[in-house]
Amino acid sequence: MDKCEELKELVQSLFLNGIKVQALKDDKCLLQIPFYDSDGDPIRIIVHKTEDSVTLNDAGAIAGNLFSLGQHTQDTPAFKLLCNLMKAYGLHIDFNNGLITTTVVDERQMSDAVVDFSKVILTMLTAIPHIRVEPHRLKPLGQRLKAKIKVQYGQANILDLVEHDILLPGETVGRWPIDFHWWIKQNGQIEQVYVVTVDLDVQESLGKAAKVTALALDIQRNATYDKLRIVIDSHGENSNASVAGSLVKQYGDRLKYKVYDFEKEDERLVFVKQSVNEITSEMGEPWRDFWRQQHALA
Amino acid sequence: MTVMVLRLPVDEHIIMANIAHVKVNLGELLDYSNFMSCNVAQYLPTDDSPVVDVEQVVHLGMVAQQVRRLGRGRGRLIPPQGIEFVITTQKGHRLHLTGYCLPDVEECHLALHHDKDVLRKFHAHDGHMNPKRRDYPTARLHMHFPSVKYPLIEKSSSYAYSIDDDGFFSDVADCLKYFCTELGVDMSGWQPHLIKQF
After folding, report:
1. How far away is chain A from the Cα of B30, in angstroms, using its nearest Cα?
2. Count of the separate structural domains present in chain A
3. Which of B86, B113, B129 sits opposite A40 (nearest CB)?
4. For residues B44 and B48, what is the distance between their CA atoms, to the nearest angstrom?
5. What does each C-alpha distance from A11 to A8, A118, A282, A297 come to in angstroms?
6. In terms of domains, do A183 and A95 share one?
7. Which domain holds residue A16?
8. Predicted confidence (pLDDT) per residue in A147-172, tens digit
9. pTM of whole model > 0.80?
């Protein structure tokens, strides 16, 4: 056997040894392709044959990878890449089951479909981990209230003029999550405005109150001129909610933050009106210029 | 001024022995005595080392708290049985634990994150390949950990050590118990969710 033949057999064995097929229940089979993801784990495809078609799916590996990296929401670069691949290869996202699927009606196109599907899975499981963006994680303080404030800001046409989801360095913890941010200029002095939302209708409402107070203490330590606004929300569904709300309000004067109860209409209106006034008036002009430049760069 | 250079005979065995000695000292320094199976230095080849920052965090006392149930919708792609926890360490670090199961292939994946870094991954599936095929094959239940040369998710592969059990899981709650036992995470107060039955 000459060297060329030996090389050919070696290369063939490299790929063929990596391909495995295993029968699963419910007329499905598992196809393992000869590539590994960024953990060194094999990449697999599930093939399901029905009477008139063959369906391929990724068993949830892509959704799991995106979820694990915190890039499972539609505003992240990885999700956008997935959507582009969906269009390019005619694939389908099954949001209910967390699967990426494709259907092959003509069995003569099966080999092309498997190769295309393998390309998509391989891209998503090997390239996405290198897109190092800040992961989208559920916020521990005020996920529901933040959505409510977004609606109010949207109606007041300032939603696009505020910065969302920033992190502030702290001493009590490494970094604190801030929901909304902008700055104002008063008497030649730049003052940062931070808004933090807290849902108190939860089991651990007292714990949340303690956390947000620690956040206020950290911010107070770092900067004198910054404004912190804590927006709380409770409907009385939790017996501890009122105690937690009082706890947050109690330290407001000493730690120089303002508390707004979003459930009370007058406080809600004051909070929204103050935000709109600061952002759209003369004192918010340098912020608006900065923010527009950021968007232009993006 | 005269500088004297003292040349010592270079012996590869001595260097390797010193590296091994340093690793033993690292293990002692971090006091792994309560979590011997988590002492990842014992699973690494002599030319690689554990990430000290990570080891210091994962050996602290940790308490898990589930943030809330995850809703499905067109705005987000949630894997089967997707769960997310916030983990607080005794020194105030905030970590995230994410997990999901792939019921068709009876696989389970859990990961412990600190911002963009992944500190540990617990997997229940076959066929994992360590870097350069060292200690191959790895058991079905295994724990991935970052090393200096092979940090998690940023390389072509990562090291994993086997966990001595043959469990086949289709439920993320079962794996969660293993993961939290291995890392000493306090899960008290958490109730597993009921799984949708068709």
Report:
1. 21
2. 2
3. B129
4. 6
5. 5, 19, 69, 47
6. no
7. 8-130
8. 889 889 999 999 889 998 888 877 76
9. no
